[in-house]
Design brief:
The protein is α+β, with helices and mostly antiparallel strands and 522 residues long. The chain contains 17 helices and 8 strands. The strands form 3 sheets. Strands 5, 6, 7 and 8 form a 4-stranded antiparallel beta sheet that branches. β1 and β2 form a beta hairpin. α6 runs parallel beside α8. It is globular.
């Protein structure tokens, strides 16, 4: 037999691993099928042997083609839920969201994400640049950069503050690949000191289609460049914050890459500070990801990250310049006021930041509205995303060394919010995990037929059954204000998934895993 590849999987870059799998059904009493030989471009790679069903070992690569020993994990003693597996699955979700050449790191899990192939390989071609890479935002095709950058920063923060949690889960290296997939793309989009590509695709065009990402024939994907005449203080600052965090993550393991991240971060911050404006005034991100809170919160947030990454007093001076003392009511891709206070309290210990950090987490734990079963209620669209974000923020705040910080209360609040999502109400809100998990996430790729030769269209959106493929590790939007959840693919405000949904969620999982490792999990 000859094995042929689909067109969308036909490009394999030099240094990547080419993986072939096959299955055969046979009568146990009969002769087992055998591979007689395997020929690849005229060369015989294998001959003369019987094959049996086996298992594969998950591995990671530092550079394409250089396989490392899989990271060991440690038993999660005292854990009500399997944080190790949940972190692994969340990283799998990010793999399922990858755009471009999927396996350039040699780490892509084809066994558990078999329905994805290389995609969007012409991104940027309308402007004569290569903008392949990054992540598709949610259940669609657009690469919305603002929530993508916010997700990268939250993931980076968790990888720094809860590194031991990732090590205990055996997921440090895979999480670094997840983060690096963001930062590789951000640096590619930063084409000169004051020029930044800020979105690929158009949501209004995009949402008229329902098919595989790999088969987006006819879907226009314009690339949008912002510059001094079209400023993007909010987006440039958020990308700079993500890159500053990444520079800390890779400082020891890859100092050259770390330095490159930091160079881009400092240039982007200068661009954001010098040329003021909102990215959504120029890019068709409305109404999907409008910069509602403006850009001062991102400038503050970014200055804090650059001060943490470099220790340079000039960035601390910028923090003083940008500080307004605004209270934050959420942790989101748009509003950074609360997390900026927590970050600055951790880094400086100053009273003004500590008091804001304590006030925010006290409010969330004590007075913020909750659903009858205990989920903190912040917004009706993707409510669990907001609950997971504040759970992570208050876990981070619990590390502030100040008597005003009620560590035990913040930890318990975070545990309660995360366990709500994992199954404490009788069901899981993580695809593929736990009891009665969601089966119909609003997500195009996993909703399409398993057979790539079958057409995928709006009939697959409308069909009432479960998605044919499992979108492992994805946190869905969650229930309504009365804890009611209907597993309906069409109810996107509750069943959609997104890169920013899993960011605070995964970082909070790492925080809980670290608490378990330290023997401090309640």
């Amino acid at each position: 037999a000859t094995i042929s590849n689909m067109d969308f999987n036909g490009d394999v870059q030099a240094g990547s691993n080419l993986e072939l799998s096959w299955q055969a059904q046979y009568n146990e009493a009969g002769t087992k099928p055998a591979i007689i030989y395997v020929e690849f471009e005229g060369d015989v790679c294998f001959s003369d042997g019987y094959t049996t069903r086996g298992t594969t070992t998950r591995g990671t690569t530092q550079t394409p083609g250089t396989t490392q020993t899989p990271e060991p994990d440690m038993p999660c003693d005292g854990c009500k839920y399997d944080y190790n597996e949940l972190i692994r699955m969340s990283n799998l979700f990010y793999q399922a969201q990858r755009s471009g050449y999927l396996d350039i790191y040699g780490d892509f899990n084809h066994q558990e994400v078999p329905y994805r192939g290389d995609s969007s390989l012409n991104d940027g071609s309308d402007n004569g640049v290569d903008l392949t890479g990054g992540y598709h935002d949610a259940g669609d095709y657009v690469k919305f950069h603002f929530p993508m950058a916010a997700a990268a920063t939250l993931l980076g923060w968790g990888a720094i503050d809860f590194k031991d949690g990732y090590i205990a889960a055996g997921q440090r290296l895979q999480t670094e690949y997840t983060i690096r997939w963001f930062t590789d793309y951000f640096m590619k989009c930063h084409v000169s000191p004051n020029e930044l590509y800020s979105q690929v695709g158009d949501g209004d065009i995009d949402h008229a289609y329902w098919t595989r990402i790999e088969e987006m024939d006819g879907v226009e994907r314009p690339a949008f460049l912002l510059d001094a005449d079209h400023p993007a203080s909010d987006l440039a600052s958020e990308k700079a914050a993500a890159l500053a965090a990444a520079s800390m993550i890779f400082k020891e393991s890859d100092p050259e890459y770390s330095a490159e991240c930091l160079r881009h971060a400092e240039e982007l911050f200068s661009f954001a500070d010098t040329y003021r404006g909102k990215y959504s005034d120029w890019v068709p991100a409305n109404p999907f990801y409008t910069s509602w809170s403006g850009y001062m919160d991102e400038l503050l947030w970014c200055a804090g990250w650059l001060y943490r990454a470099t220790g340079k007093e000039e960035y601390l001076a910028k923090v003083d310049e940008f500080w307004t003392g605004l209270d934050g009511g959420e942790v989101s891709w748009d509003d950074k006021n609360a997390v900026a206070s927590i970050l600055l309290a951790l880094v400086t210990g100053e009273e003004r930041y500590v008091s804001k950090a304590a006030a925010f987490c006290d409010m969330m734990a004590d007075t913020q509205q909750k659903t009858p079963q205990g989920m903190v209620w912040i917004q009706p669209w993707g409510p669990l995303r907001h609950a997971a974000n504040v759970a992570f923020a208050c876990l981070a705040a619990s590390n502030i060394d100040d008597p005003r910080i009620n560590k035990e209360k913040y930890i318990q609040f975070s545990v309660d919010q995360m366990h709500y999502a994992l199954g404490d109400t009788g069901r899981s809100y993580v695809v593929g995990f736990g009891n009665n998990p969601p089966q119909r996430p609003h997500h195009r790729p996993s909703s399409c037929p398993v057979d790539p030769n079958e057409e995928c269209n709006w009939d697959d959106f409308s069909q009432p059954g479960p998605n044919p493929s499992t979108l492992w590790g994805a946190l869905v939007g969650g229930p309504d204000q009365s804890d009611v959840y209907i597993d309906d693919r069409g109810d996107y405000s509750h069943t959609e998934v997104a890169c920013d949904y899993n960011a605070g969620f995964q970082s909070a999982l790492a925080g809980l895993r670290q608490l378990a490792f330290e023997g401090r999990l309640p």
